[in-house]
Amino acid sequence: MRPHETAPYDQWIERSPEEMVARAADFYEEVNRRRTTRYFSDRPVPREVIETCLKAAGTAPSGANHQPWHFTVIESPRIKAEVRHAAEEEERIFYRDKAPQEWLDALAPLGTDEDKPFLETAPYLIVVFSQKRGGPNPGDLKKNYYINESVGIATGILITALHHAGVATLTHTPAPMNFLNEICGRPDSEKPFLILVAGYPAPDATVPVAGKVKKPLDQISNWL
Ligand code: IYR
Question: Residue ranges of the Nitroreductase domain (predicted)?
Answer without folding.
Answer: 33-200
